[in-house]
Each structure stands twice: as structure tokens, then as C-alpha cells.
Amino acid sequence: MLGVWANAIAIVVGALLGCLLRGGIKEKYSQTINYGLALCVTIIGISGALKAQDTLCMIVSVVVGSALGELLRIERGIERLGDWAQQRFSKGDTGFATGFVNASLLFCVGAMAVVGALEAGLQNKPDTLLAKSALDGVFSVILASSFGPGVIFSAVPILIYQGGIALLSGVLSPLLTDALINEMSAVGSLLIIGIGLNSMGFLKDRIRVGNMLPAIIIPCIYLPLVGIFG
């Protein structure tokens, strides 16, 4: 569990540093940096999505997962959690909820979160999560410099998400084959592209990435069914 805690601490430390820098960065620099971060996030998403071996699996996962997420209104639930934290800890900061939602989605989605948590639980090996901690720490500095202290609280979903996978790793490991993890990662990377596009602000209607989160687990159902029915 060392890697799980290290990841959360890296986010908190990075976000605190970003908050200190927030007032000292001129708006034009902040905007350009934010666009640069959005481009980096988009490229990371594209590189991961291109690793998909089963395009149909990705399509089915996104369609079914998005429909399920809209039904459950997952993003609205995340936003309400962010709004509650904003009212409790940072009244008047309009970027708080946005920072919390964007950071939570970015840090939880992706192969390193799943694989790293499994390694931490099964082998007590923190290497992958320590590498992820370094990346998340850098991203949290930049995100917090744009959106403020909401990014700090994204460490809580990270602890719950990765800690839960680590604790359940003994049960999950026989089910999570390399092929399955690869497809889950590809779908997650597709959602990361959505986060990047939202951050750029060029879209007329923002992509509700939070409502697409169930798409990540749809390959767990799709691939076994394909194996059975061919």
C-alpha cells in the first residue's frame, strides 16, 4: 500500500504548490499553460487508445457504458461532491469543483492506476504507482495553478479507488488478464482524450466524461462473452 499512499501524497503536495503559484501567474501565461496541459493530456489519451486490439470492444464499451453512466448520472454525483467540498472548505472559489472533477477523472482513469494497484496488492511492489506519483504530482501542480484547491481533494478518490483495487487484488487478479487490462486501458485512454478536449474549451457542449466511466469495466463483461459465444 506504500505506492497508494505515495500517489495521494504526491497529488496533495503538488496541488499545494500549484495553489501557491496560482496568484503569481499572469492570466495569459496561465491560459497558455492550461492549453499546453490539455494538449499533453490529449496526446497521452491518444497514445493509449491506439493500443486497443479489439475496436468493437471499445465501441460497445463506450456506447453501453455511456448509456449506463447517463442513467446513473455519475458526473452529477461527482460534481455535487465537489460542490459540497467547495462550500465546506473554499467558498467563493469558482474553479474548485472543476478542478476536483477533472483531477479525479484524470488520476483515476488509465492503466497505471489499475496495474499499479494490483502490483501493490499482490506483490507489495510500489514501482508502477511511484512512477505514477511523479507524473500525477507534476500534473497536480499545473491543474491547481489553474483551478485551485479542488485538486487537493482529488487525492481522496485516488485513495479509495487504488486502495480498493489493492485490497481486492487477490480476488480480481485471476479475472484481469493481460488482454482485458489492455482493453480497459484503451477505453480509459479514450476518456482521457475527452478530458483534454474539455480542458481546451473548444467544444460547444462539454463531454460528460464522468458519465462514461462505466465504459472502463464493460470489457470485463464483453470479452468473456465473446470467448464463450465466439
What does this entry look like structurally?
The chain is mainly α and 230 residues long. The chain is built from eleven helices and no strands. Helix 1 (2-22) runs antiparallel to helix 8 (155-167), helix 2 (27-49) packs antiparallel against helix 7 and helix 6 packs across helix 8. The chain is globular and about 60 Å long. The N and C termini lie far apart (39 Å). The model has no long low-confidence stretch (mean pLDDT 86).
Q: Find the count of extended strands (DSSP E, 2+ residues).
A: 0
- The structural class is mainly alpha
* Average pLDDT reading: 86
The helix/strand order is: HHHHHHHHHHH
- Return residue spans where pLDDT drops below 50 for at least 5 consecutive residues: none
The outline comes out as: globular
Largest sheet: none
**Radius of gyration of CA atoms, rounded to a whole number:** 17 Å
How much strand content do the residues show? under 5%
Distance between the termini: 39 Å
Q: Could you estimate the helical fraction of the residues in percent?
A: over 70%
Q: Count of helices? A: 11
Outline the fold blueprint.
Blueprint: H1 2-22, H2 27-49, H3 55-72, H4 74-89, H5 96-108, H6 111-122, H7 127-147, H8 155-167, H9 169-172, H10 178-200, H11 219-229
Helix pairs in contact: 1-7, 1-8, 2-7, 2-10, 3-10, 4-5, 5-7, 6-7, 6-8
Concise structural overview:
The protein is mostly helical and 230 residues long. Helix content is 76%, strand content 0%. Helix 2 runs antiparallel to helix 10 and helix 6 (111-122) crosses helix 8 (155-167).
